[in-house]
């Protein structure tokens, strides 16, 4: 499991007084930075290899500006050309949101999905949720 | 159906060269402004009445910075205390993303879900996807 | 003068109830899209030619979520390798913010400032604030 | 001086390949969270007491996605009803951006500027840049 600590920003709140729901995808993507590094070790966009195909998010409880956030990130499933990330957003002992992100291993030059290379597969499998 | 025209912004692109995937929830929420108005006619946050409980998004094709976007918004289902929005993002004749957002009619003061009032229900039903 | 109409989004508000101050740079950048087109006609990032060197913004009045916004954009000054944009944000007859953005005509490949080409200079000069 | 470590997010990059210039105001605001706490100790928006009146930012060098960021925050000046924050954005030994933010101590209920209370003044003065 990957752990990412996040300090909520004023700009991430909204008029209803809590963290706006469009911020969770931003924080969850932030929690995947080490996953991106497994697929593109130098994090260079010219060699970027992932394309998101689905995001599914449950908003379980309101996320507060005043409290630090912990994003937990697992790999739920590794396919041939795709993989699924499972992630949770916690504030203290409250689970605020959870969801999945499905990525395709994607070659932007040839514009096609490719088989996940063995080294990346091994790296991903270390974060598998059992 | 509600139509919202959106002009992509530089700040909404990312290093991979297209619109970042965290922007689609922002644009789709923008497309719901008239829905929010049905539930809170003066759009005042003190009387805000919706809380998002689920968001499910399919990324169908890359969204380009160079082309204007059309967000199409329907109501898919109206329950007793909740409703589901269905939405699509188009660039020209390309469908780039589609998804649903499930909202609860929520009273922030009492922190509880409430029955959708009749007037709002009538308003929502005008945008039902048949 | 360039005019850009903007509809405020829920995600652009903050807990204090108005549009968050980090959003004005986003909207002002949105108001410069036709300026960017003068310098990079196909808006392709591989041929991107501007780099921001200074932004100076006065927040004159609170910007409300409930009201549509008009961004007005002028060219204030054209130098040899740089130019200054002057911009204003209006809601109805209220001026909410104003400021300048100073750009260098920049070649990202050679990582150096270059002389603004004549065609772009002519284009920019059509929006000069007199 | 306050120090805030920031890990750049994919969503904060833009098509030109670096961190988009609209992100610096977001990160600088993030660096002021402890300043806001001095003025509104429980960080509750109902008691929010600051309103931004000017932001001035110099972009000194390109900010890269691949490298962690350090935001340094000082108080530059404390007036009767206002104060100025000075801030810098560093990546390794590169200064990438610097600027000021001028805030008024503001009562949102009465919609008027007020004298900064003594306790807040003492707190602010501990971060004065000498």
The amount of beta strand of chain A, in percent, is 35-45%
Q: Report the order of strands and helices of chain A.
A: EHHEEEEEH
Shape of chain A: elongated
Number of DSSP-assigned strands of chain A: 6
Overview of the structural elements:
The structure is a homotetramer of 130-residue chains. In chain A, 18% of the residues lie in helices and 39% in strands. In chain A, strand 5 and strand 6 (112-113) form a beta hairpin. The model of chain A has no long low-confidence stretch (mean pLDDT 97). In chain A, strands 1, 2, 3, 4, 5 and 6 form a 6-stranded antiparallel β-sheet that branches. Chain A has helices spanning 23-30, 33-39, 118-125; strands spanning 2-6, 50-59, 69-78, 82-91, 94-107, 112-113. Chain A has 130 residues and is of the alpha+beta class.
Overview features:
homotetramer; 130 residues; alpha+beta; 6 strands; 39% strand
Break the fold down into its secondary structure elements and pairings.
4 copies of one chain form a homotetramer.
Chain A (H helix, E strand, L loop, with lengths): L1 E5 L16 H8 L2 H7 L10 E10 L9 E10 L3 E10 L2 E14 L4 E2 L4 H8 L5
Antiparallel strand pairs in A: 1-3, 2-5, 3-4, 4-5, 5-6
Structure, briefly:
The structure is a homotetramer of 130-residue chains. Helices cover 18% and strands 39% of the residues of chain A. Chain A has 130 residues and is of the alpha+beta class.
């Amino acid at each position: 499991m990957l752990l990412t600590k996040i300090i909520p920003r004023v700009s991430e709140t909204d008029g209803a007084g809590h963290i706006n729901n469009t911020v969770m995808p931003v924080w969850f993507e932030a929690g995947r930075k080490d996953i991106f590094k497994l697929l593109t070790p130098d994090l260079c966009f010219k060699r970027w290899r992932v394309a998101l195909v689905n995001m599914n998010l449950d908003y379980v409880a309101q996320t507060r500006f005043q409290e630090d956030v912990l994003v937990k990130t697992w790999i739920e499933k590794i396919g041939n050309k795709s993989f699924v990330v499972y992630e949770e957003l916690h504030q203290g002992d409250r689970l605020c949101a959870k969801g999945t992100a499905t990525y395709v291993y994607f070659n932007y030059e040839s514009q096609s999905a490719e088989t996940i290379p063995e080294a990346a597969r091994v790296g991903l499998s270390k974060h598998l949720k059992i």
